[in-house]
Design a protein that fits this description.
heterodimer, A: 445 residues, 9-stranded mixed sheet, 5-stranded parallel sheet, disordered C terminus, B: 274 residues, alpha/beta, Rossmann fold, two-stranded antiparallel ribbon, binds flavin-adenine dinucleotide
Chain lengths: 445, 274
């Protein structure tokens, strides 16, 4: 019953007639008081141009199209656009293209997305026999794989730490079960680069590494010709594309306009066990044992690859306090040019156009005004925090979090906060900490 | 035919000597293009030299000519009397010859660079050797901390200057990252005096490589920022927007403690505080 739309032509007529005495009443009743847009009964969007905008000071209607006034509505429209991306389903794929993303931090990186774009290019080349892109993950797949272009998801067991043998055995099981036509991995130092090479050696395939371009070529065995970097990046190698591909970043455009099914695929044969072959010498130890990350001295990390930078500018007066804060926070120190020119910091710590271009995930600017030469150097930084006296300076505009106040006071408060938090953690862990020190003492004795 | 060279003689003392093979290749100077020590391989030799009680043998498989001789002498100048050369014609697959030789010698530790500076430079050599010998492989080392009782403790270089400590059972193959300590200078005298001991071994031609086209690296096209906007207003905003849009949180009129608390929270959320 309630499915049937009931229309009241009289009320609709009143709603259209602005001069009708009951106009506003009826509008409110129909639930579109001041709304300028609503969904009509036929599913068409209806607009009331008279309800747009607001009355200006001189009694003239003003329409602000900058998006400030309609922020709410625009946001809603964008959200619905994300949902309304055309959905692509490939039910009977002619072949599989498997992608093994790195997923640093559990998210698809830009490199991974480029690779998925390449996979789509390979899968969709022939409209009559389309392939499916399968993403292979160790652990749960991220939620946005469907928008990144995955038709299938093969979620294998989670593998912690550095266990390349285990990962390799799992990938071998995928290979046995699905025999994909292409294997794509990111050619990144420790993730896909390592795994892909191990896999190539195990499967006896000759891979292509450093691939950055593919061209269709019916003559080639797999139908593709590729260009890859070789000889430490100084040569381009043109060759037919093999099955196993390790590709560089920006090898293809990432997917942004479609959504894909991302149907889970299971290994029917179940997950295999790893057995490490015995090695000569008879030492009874695991092949490779991961002892975890080692704390590194942040002062020794090169500025360009530091993850967390505390940077000082002309607004810093208390230099001992600044160095102390960097030590307590475990941050690498940076500086603006003024701080370097004044001799408070060494030249190799200068951030900016004439200094180092940093890629930190978190950049804390203390007493830095944010001159364009400085801002250029911190462009790729993800989160910028600014501590400054001047709420109007450019660094505050760039910052994700700005604290207006005296640098020395805020830094010392921050140091106290971090130390008190550590103190609490230390208190809860002190019992087992003392146990380990006991053990160490016994070992030493 | 396996190379007929004896394994390095063990010393008579009780401390066991660690048998190390450092694989070295001919590099290419990035500017002049002339042959030189390959940077990563030289770092690998430096790592081998830093191990106490290690007896290191330099091994190169490849062609021997004026260019490669100069490069190989560079390694000799780091303090070696000789270098073992498995002579191969140009364009051969050296993994076969090296695999045979290593099987024959049975060293405890093989150190190689992550990838070569000439040829395909795919970085596959160490992986092929590890697969063939059935040994564990650790890639991207920054340091070898200690070797004792058949287990090596090594530091692996992670991105952003981080390090991971691993234990690997010997015999093993390790490759060296550019984060490893830089190689010492090559001294002219030892480089002159050192000898290249040639062994003739079977060569296996790399058919595939010779069928590919090699050309100087082209500059990769720069990715354009494509704006895919549904409406004209979005397109206009994307074209006219300043790179740094506001939208950050600004805390004015707060006490230092409140400010510190907000910063602490963000640092904690980002996981940069250890
Ligand atoms: C060709 C060229 C290249 C350059 N290259 C670089 C470069 O690579 N890197 C670089 O950094 N600069 C570079 N500069 C210099 C740049 O233009 C600026 O002069 C410089 O970055 C300003 O440094 P600053 O922000 O530390 O100092 P200032 O501009 O003096 O800013 C100090 C800030 O600290 C705040 N402050 C003062 N006291 C306190 C307090 N007690 N607590 C909190 N905040 C306080 C002030 O409000 C102000 O915002 C270059 C300039 C030129 C011409």
């Amino acid at each position: 019953m309630s499915e049937i739309l009931r229309r009241d032509p009289r009320k609709e007529w009143i709603a259209r007639n602005r001069l009708h005495p009951k106009h506003l009443e009826v509008l409110a009743e129909l639930g579109r008081g001041a709304a300028s847009e609503w969904m009509g009964p036929q599913g068409l969007v209806r607009k009331n141009p008279h309800a747009v905008g607001f009355m200006g000071p001189h009694g003239i209607r003003r329409i602000d199209r900058s998006g400030v006034q309609q922020g709410q509505g625009a946001g809603g429209a964008r959200a619905s656009a994300a949902v309304s991306k055309p959905r692509v389903e490939i039910d009977e794929p002619a072949f599989l293209v498997t992608v093994v993303p790195d997923m640093g931090g559990g998210r698809l990186s830009g490199h991974d997305r480029d690779l998925l774009g390449l996979a789509r290019q390979l899968a969709d080349a022939d409209p009559d026999a389309r392939g499916a892109v399968a993403v292979v993950t160790f652990g749960a797949a991220p939620e946005d794989v469907d928008e990144a272009g995955a038709d299938r998801v093969i979620a294998l067991e989670a593998v912690e730490g550095f266990a390349p043998e285990r990962r390799l055995v799992l990938l071998e099981a995928v290979e046995r079960e699905f025999a994909p036509r292409h294997w794509l991995l990111p050619d990144s130092g420790l993730g896909g680069g390592d795994l892909g090479r191990r896999m190539a050696a195990r499967l006896g395939e000759r891979p292509v590494t450093g691939l950055w371009q593919v061209i269709e070529d019916p003559e080639a065995p797999l139908g593709w010709q590729c260009t890859a970097r070789g000889a430490a990046g100084s040569k381009d190698i043109l060759r037919p594309m093999p099955r196993l591909v390790m590709a560089l970043a920006e090898c293809a455009e990432p997917i942004s306009e479609t959504r894909h099914a991302a149907t889970p695929l299971m290994l029917e044969a179940g997950l295999p066990e790893v057995s490490e072959p015995a090695l000569p010498g008879g030492v009874d130890a695991p092949w490779i044992e991961d002892l975890g990350q080692v704390p590194v001295d942040p002062a020794g990390v090169a500025l360009s690859e530091a993850e967390f930078i505390l940077s000082a500018g002309n607004g810093v007066r208390d230099w001992d306090g600044f160095h102390e804060a960097a030590k307590v926070l475990g941050a690498t120190e940076g500086a603006s040019r003024v701080a370097v020119d004044d001799g408070y910091m060494p030249r190799d710590r200068q951030v900016g156009a004439t200094g180092t271009w940093v890629t930190a995930r978190v950049y804390v600017a203390v007493g830095i005004s944010g001159a364009i030469q400085h801002l250029q150097g911190i462009q790729p930084c993800e989160k910028v925090i600014s501590i400054n006296m001047d709420a109007g300076c450019d660094m505050v505009k760039r910052a994700d979090l700005a604290v207006i106040g005296d640098a020395a006071a805020v830094l010392s408060a921050l140091v106290a906060r971090v130390q008190s938090a550590r103190g609490q953690e230390g208190a809860t862990e002190s019992s087992d900490a003392s146990a380990t020190t006991d053990k160490e003492a016994r070992n030493a004795a | 035919m396996p190379p007929d060279i004896q394994a390095p003689k063990r010393r008579a003392s009780t401390t066991p000597v660690l048998d190390v093979v450092a694989l070295v290749s001919v590099g290419r100077h990035p500017v002049t293009g002339r042959g030189r020590r390959a940077d990563l391989d030289a770092r690998g030799v430096e790592l081998a030299l830093s191990l106490p009680e290690a007896q290191t043998r330099l091994v190169h498989a490849g062609r021997y000519d004026a260019d490669s001789e100069q490069a190989l002498r560079g390694y000799l100048g780091m303090g070696f009397k000789d270098l073992t050369l498995l002579e191969q014609p140009a364009g051969s697959d050296v993994s076969v010859a090296l695999g045979e030789a290593l099987e024959d010698w049975g060293p405890q530790l093989v150190i190689a660079g992550e990838r070569a500076e000439q040829g395909e430079g795919s970085g596959m050599l160490a992986y092929l050797l590890a697969e063939r010998l059935g040994w564990p492989l650790v890639q991207g080392l920054a340091a070898i901390e200690e070797v004792s009782q058949g287990v090596a403790t090594v530091l692996q270089a992670l991105p952003r200057g981080q390090r991971r400590r691993l234990k690997v059972r010997l015999p093993a193959i390790v490759t060296v990252d550019s984060a490893a300590p830089a190689a010492r200078q090559s001294a002219f005298g030892p480089a002159r005096r050192g000898e290249c001991q040639s062994l003739t071994v079977d060569a296996c031609k790399d058919e595939a490589l010779s069928s590919w086209t090699m050309q100087p690296a082209r500059k990769r096209p720069k990715r354009l920022k494509i704006v895919k906007a549904a409406s004209a207003r979005d397109r206009f905003k994307a074209a006219a927007a300043k790179a740094e849009g506001g939208g950050g949180q600004v805390l004015s009129d707060v006490t230092p403690d409140e400010g510190a608390e907000a910063i602490y929270k963000l640092l904690k959320d980002e996981g940069v505080l250890r």
